[in-house]
Every structure is written in C-alpha cells, then in structure tokens.
Design brief:
about 260 residues; alpha/beta; Rossmann fold; 6-stranded mixed sheet; two-stranded parallel sheet
C-alpha cells in the first residue's frame, strides 16, 4: 500500500454521528493533519448502530443503567445545544459531506469513486463495507480499531480490554478486507491504563491518540513507507456489544463506565 510522495494523498472518511468519542478523533485530526500532504475529499457521517434513536436509547440504558444513562443524556443535550458535532467540525474544514441511507448503496459507491480518493478511511463506521466500497479507493480502505488485533476484534474493544485486565489499551490502524478486523496492520499505539481511569476517559484519550496514529500512517502511505504486517488469525477472537451481565462484571471488578 503505497502512495506518491509528490502528490497529496486524497482521503475520504466514513464515520458515525458520535459527539462524545469519535468527535474527539476529528477534533485532533482536523487540528493537526498536514494540509500540504493530505487532501480531505469528502466524508459520510452515518447513524450510530444503524438503529432508530429509540433503539439506541434502549441499548444505552441497558448498558449504562439508569443513573449513568441520565448523565450521558444530559451530556448529549449539552453537546446539541453547543452544536458540537462531527458535521460542525467538518463544515469548519470545508469538507464535503456525502449523505446516504447506506454506504453500500451502488449509487453512493459511485459517488465516492467519482471523488477519486486514494484511500477510504473508516472511523467507527456503522456498517460493514461491501466489496465494492472496499475497492472504491485507489489504495483501498483502512480502519482504526481501539483494540489489539486479532485478539479484540468486534465491538467496544476498549471495554473488553479493561474487563480482561489489560494494563495497556492498543489502538490499531489496519487495512480493510472482507473479513471484519482481519486486514494487515499498518500501525499501533498504546495507552497505559491508570487505576483511576474510567471507560469514558480511556475512550476519549485513545480516540485522540488514534487520530495522531492515523495521521502518521497516512503520511507513511503517501511517502511509500508503509510496511503492512499480516495478522496471525490463530489468536483471533470476536466480541459483541456488552450485555448487562458483562457490565455487572466490569463494575464488580471496581471499574467505572463514567
């Protein structure tokens, strides 16, 4: 996976509407990416979990419990009042927004191809990419995952790493292939956990560090210096969204969500 050091690397983002954690990624990315090396040709901001607002609210209530759910809801209202969103951040950067009901819609994929991106970059994208979308960028697609691969494939990897007693959270940028979280590794960064860390704090901090990792990876791709490392899938696991039992175990170990 190599670009051309003589031209800007053309990047298209696919992400989700999350004013808490994913927004932290883009706050740092937009503030620090080298404009002379990277060109942001567009972005799609999808609905979280591909569910209705009511379904998402029920999911979050089961996950957080009533007290923390109320706290999260209050934070969400505050973010909306302050107009803090990824769309607002993108507008400030004059990044073109492509809207779609599904990123796998053939007409949408055609529009993405029309922007001639070198790379399509997934940051918490709410859908699994079709083979057509995976091939939409000249150099393919890359994803950022807040877990060590292939051990922590799947959803909410930060939660599962903390529950497993890991002392460091690994953030991974990898190539995207048809199999979920199974592409070659392009770069990693580690966040060392402290005893007082909450899931909320760790997710925020790893998103910031992940933005800097992504910038580094994209710059290396542009310069032709990327050296992808294949995954040994013998150690692969896959985690789904935590259940109430998982959250109870998390709290039972003295860990906090917020």
């Amino acid at each position: 996976m190599n670009g051309s050091a003589s031209e800007k690397l053309r990047v298209f983002f696919v992400t989700q509407d999350d004013p808490f954690y994913v927004a932290r990624f883009f706050e740092v990315f937009f503030a620090e990416y080298p404009r002379e090396e990277l060109e942001l040709v567009g972005m799609t901001i999808g609905r979280a979990f591909r569910e209705s607002k009511l379904a998402v609210a029920k999911r979050m209530l089961r996950f957080y419990g009533l007290r923390d759910f109320v706290r999260v809801a209050a934070r969400l209202v505050g973010a909306r009042i302050r107009r803090r969103s990824i769309a607002t951040l993108a507008a400030r950067e004059q990044v073109r927004i492509l809207e779609t009901a599904s990123v796998n819609d053939p007409a949408y994929v055609g529009r993405v191809r029309g922007l001639q991106p070198d790379l399509v970059v997934s940051v918490a994208a709410p859908e699994i990419f079709s083979e057509e979308l995976l091939a939409a960028g000249r150099l393919g697609c890359v994803n950022i995952h807040s877990g060590r691969l292939p051990r922590y494939r799947g959803m909410l990897p930060t939660f599962w790493q903390m529950l497993a007693g890991e002392r460091r959270i690994t953030v991974t940028v990898h190539e995207m292939v048809a199999r979920l979280d199974a592409g070659r590794i392009l770069g990693t960064v580690e966040y060392e956990l402290r005893d007082e860390d909450t899931l909320d704090h760790v997710m925020s901090e790893t998103k910031r560090e992940g933005a800097r990792l992504m910038i580094d990876v994209l710059r290396r791709i542009r310069r032709g210096e990327a050296r992808p490392e294949p995954l040994d899938m013998g150690d692969a696991s896959y985690f789904s969204f935590p259940s109430r039992k998982d959250v109870a175990e998390f709290r039972g170990r003295g860990l906090r969500l917020l």
